[in-house]
Amino acid sequence: MNPHLFAQVLSASGVAMAIRDKNLRPIFANQAFTGFYGYSLAEIVGGRAEDILPGKTQSLLDQTVRPMVRAGQSWEGEYAIRTASGRLCPVWGRFDPVLDDAGRLTHVISIMRDASASLRLRNALTQSERHLHFLTENTRDCLFRLRVADRRFDYISPAVQSITGYSPQEFYEIPGLFDRLMPGEWAGVFDLWWREMLDGVCRDEYEFPLIHKDGSLRWINQRVTLDREADGTATALEGILSDITRRHEAQEMLAVAQKSLNFISSSTSDIFFRMAIPEGTYDYLSPSVEKFSGYPLAEYQAQPLFVRELIHPDWHDYFRKTWAELCRGVVRSEYVFQFIHKSGEVRWARQRVVMHKDTQGNPIAIEGMASDATEYMHTVEALRKSEARFRALFEDSPISLWEEDLTRLKAHFDTLKARGVTDFRAHFSAHPEDLARCAALVDVVAVNKATLQLLRAESRGDLLGNLDKVLTESSMNAFTEEMIVLASGGHEYCGEITHRTLDGQIIWVMVHFSVPPEHRQTLSRVIVSLLDVTPRKRAEQALMESEGRYRALVENAQEGVAVIQGQSILFINDAMTHVFGYARQELQALNPLQLIHPDDMPGIREQVAIHLGGRKAVAFAPFRVVTGDGGIKWVTLSIKPIMWNGQQAHLEILADVTGHKLLEEELRAAHAEVENRVRLRTAELSEANTRLMAEAEERRLAQERILSLTQQLIHAQENERQRIARDLHDKVAQDLSSIVLNMETLFDGCAWVDEVLRQRGEAVTEVVRGAIAAVREIAYGLRPPALDQLGLLLALENHCAETARRTGLEVRFQAVGMDDVPLSFDAEINLYRMVQEALNNTARHARASRVAVRMVKSHPELLVRIEDNGQGFDVDRRMAEALAENRMGLRSMEERARLVCGVMEIQSRVGTGTRIVFKIPLDTLKRSA
């Protein structure tokens, strides 16, 4: 071929082609080839190979392509080149060797084309393959391909195991496994579907059951497509299997529910309906409407808003207003109105509806239920009358009745439950202050007249204003139990407690509270009754004491006791057997008269006859009896008629007085001597008693003088503190302030002042300022002005805050019920000093991080409690050390408590913190006139 013509052919070709030498270096290249690189042929040949061919491509040419073409073989494949722009470009290339007649390589012809699109396509296919693999591995649906010819699976995804219980490998290895899972009654249906698919008919979906490997029945949804040959012959099925067991069960339940709803709507007297708005036509109306109103269903369907014709004339305005609201999309929670039945009877109806709106929010329909409320409204009216009767009975009941509203208390219980409180007994035990809060949340709505009479109150306000005087310790215990019952979901409590009437008398009452069923969700009404059981309790107590004394007397008496009914001995105590010397069974077998001495028998028989004839108690003179061993004893006998097991009997008490008879004379002789000694001893005791009374009176007067002197001393101390504080503030502090002012203006007017001198002046000024602050702090400690200006509570609150600021302690102050407690000046200063000293001790010695100060009015006392979480101490040892070392801190607090007739209690152990409690009678704290 003409070389020039060949070159023209290459140049005209749109395929990048080049003729290369044996070493694959281009000798000739067409424009498509050089354009691909962006270089001329000379630049390609003369340039550096690494600038044009990446290292991997160069290695491919050297190690693979060159050996193959030298061996006379062609090579094709992909590799990368670097264009003039520096971009790596993937290409597909082919290298064909040109051999001479001797079979030697002379040239190589290469062609190449851009492989970027092919690479992107392969990458996309690879990514799609990964996505498909991920979906098939992770979806709950099963993907499969089934060959029609042999019904074997080309592919089935792992999800088949969760659907059938069998692994994909089992489906690959066992032909027709899927057919075996089909229930027998479905075999014909499945064969029909298979024949349809072989004929080229494929349904959109198939639903059928299959038996899982574990024996359970599963429902499957299958969607398939047929893969056909060019002639239309079905070759394979490709599809998706989904487990729809739950959906199928839900559909079955829905069908059952629909049947139930249809049954209810056709059987109930209530009406179910759906009405279009604003047309007023019914999309659905249950047949019970005819029973409800007397009008057939057809009349409602024929006339829009037919219900309007039924409305009672008095309710026409109500209907127009509510219908206008519904047309605007406004729904009320309930509609109650009167309508006229076809029979002419006026009835009540109740209706509840829900609104349906379109996507723009416009109302399109309402669905609801209407019911005959005639009986309900009659019941409401009856309840109203019943409430009136209840009020009358409540007010005039002879039993004390309280009506309480515990709505706020219920909210508090709900808050505690939301915080995790479940054991309310433990909660109230750990937080007794919460009981006071619960008491404050109880709203007493009403009390009746019997309550005022029971508790000796003049009026309801008088009673409610003095409830703290009514409650006793057992009352508070019962209140605690009531709170535990209510908080734990209970609705009733009954118990016996004591109350204190407003005139101070203690009474026993049976308290019973109950929550009516209709108020148990809100506790908005609780009825509490108090029944006065004081007479019964006193009688029970007396009876208990009497029974105890009688039992002890009979069982332990030295006298013999017997109960005789007719001629039978029903009861004998041990003492009776000791008197006669017979066993209990022997005595019960004998006639009592057989035991009397023959000489005394006539008189005893006569007295017994008198007793039996008159049924009166008889006491016998001493007489003799014969014992079991033949001995003689003197006894006295008393007989009293009693009832025993509902029948008449008599009680015999026999006392052995044999020793008395022998000692009678000795006693007479000794009596005179004893009387004389008694007179002498009485005189001595009277004289000693007189001396003791005089000494006690002297000690009482001395104690009063000591107390008076202590009060005067504290008065003088407080007055002196006030005077010193005033002098420190008004004089010393003012003078020091003047010094500061003079020091600040010392160098005014001086043109030049030495810097050292100025710094010394400023240092002196700072020292004086510190002295002013110290003087004011001392003055405040001596006599806090807040006590006079703000009162005790605010003064203590300020002092707690100042202590917290000064020491870094967390100090909390709380006062409960103190608003109406009048305090004298002495009481205020003593209470303030007690708390002040306790906080000082805590700050100095306790090593605490937290301290709480509480003042609580708890009738009849004021309680002041200072409690810290410090290291604690041994109370007995510390008090002994304070006494031995003359420490005044604890003794000062104790003395101040004694001055206001109170007591101080210290509760502490090493490592558990310290609690100091002052208990002060409220009567001693009242302000003097």
Note the main attributes of this structure.
Beta-Lactamase; 929 residues; 6 domains; five-stranded antiparallel β-sheet; six-stranded antiparallel β-sheet; alpha+beta; 31 strands
Question: What would your notes on this structure say?
Answer:
Pfam families: HATPase_c, HisKA_3, PAS_3, PAS_9. GO terms for molecular function: phosphorelay sensor kinase activity; protein dimerization activity. Keywords: Cell membrane, Coiled coil, Kinase, Membrane, Transferase, Transmembrane, Transmembrane helix, Two-component regulatory system. Residues 2-72, 128-183, 279-334, 565-615 form the PAS domain. The chain has 929 residues and is α+β, with helices and mostly antiparallel strands. It folds into six domains: 3-121, Beta-Lactamase, CATH 3.30.450; 139-250, Beta-Lactamase, CATH 3.30.450.20; 268-379, Beta-Lactamase; 412-539, Beta-Lactamase, CATH 3.30.450; 557-656, PAS domain (Beta-Lactamase, 2-Layer Sandwich), CATH 3.30.450; 789-925, Histidine kinase-like ATPase, C-terminal domain (Heat Shock Protein 90), CATH 3.30.565. Strands 21, 22, 23, 24, 25 and 26 form a six-stranded antiparallel beta sheet that branches. α27 (658-744) packs antiparallel against α28 (755-782), α30 (792-807) packs parallel to α31 (825-846) and α31 (825-846) packs antiparallel against α33. The longest helix is centred in the C-terminal third of the chain and has 87 residues, at 658-744. The protein is extended and about 180 Å long.
